Amino acid sequence: MKQSDETAKLQAQIDENLKKVYQEALDEKIPDRFKDLLEQLRQKEAKQ
Fold this sequence. Notes:
Elements: H1 2-27, H2 32-47
């Protein structure tokens, strides 16, 4: 029993850490150069 409790706690901690990392990635701003590239692609598609 003790080992399964420890395993469950460890898995919960891993889940929490992965969620934090994923959320940090989602919160990052898109660099201006990527925004510019996306705008160029939109303009190119609009011309076609």
